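Tokens for Type II toxin-antitoxin system RelE/ParE family toxin. Go.
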Amino acid sequence: MNIKKSNLYLRDILKLKVDLTSQIEKSLKLLEENQNHPSLHNKSIKCKRADNLFSIRVNKQYRIMYFK
């Protein structure tokens, strides 16, 4: 899977703590390599505006939402 990071993402990631940033990058790399990896807990999100919205787990506190 190819991941395109938005300008908003690139701006906001600089505001996060270094350890969280590294966890996010690790999760995104894993998503690129294998979107069905069990540690990602990849889930479909039901939404009226978009039918291709998903989320993956970064850690117990944070998830990343993305469009497929």
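Strands lie at 43-44, 53-57, 63-67.
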